[in-house]
Amino acid sequence: MIEFGNLLIPAAVLLPNLLYAFWPAANVPKLTDSPRSLLYKIVEGAGRAGVMITPIFSAAPQFNLYETFFLSGMIVFLLLYYAGWARYLAGGREWSLLFLPMGGLPVPMAVAPVLFFISASLFLHSPLLLISSLILGAGHIPASLHMYRQIGGDRKK
Length: 157
Fold this sequence. Notes:
The protein is mainly alpha-helical.
């Protein structure tokens, strides 16, 4: 059965990315690609496709205590992600703000959506979404850490 209402899950993460399309980052540095960063991008792309598609193949949640717990996790991680976008906009759209730690969390703009999708997979009881989330994390988090290091973020503490 297809649950189109579950498309709200990836939409919640994708919609803030439109901000970047309308208000692109300032001071984007020249970065170097490596074979490893290309691999991260490929893995990230596969995970991204999975987390966008698999929710529609998951059943609607029943909202028992189990689902409520993971829905709460989804909300917390989504709010953290939105806080990162707010910091980006309030900080003059500075590119480095997309990668700098927030509240002690490294690359929060990469970690928060991955944790959001992992929580969503548990909320929907979806092993496919969980696998897609882990694949996304295996590419997105290292790719973001790679960019963070290239901008000297590990020296900005």
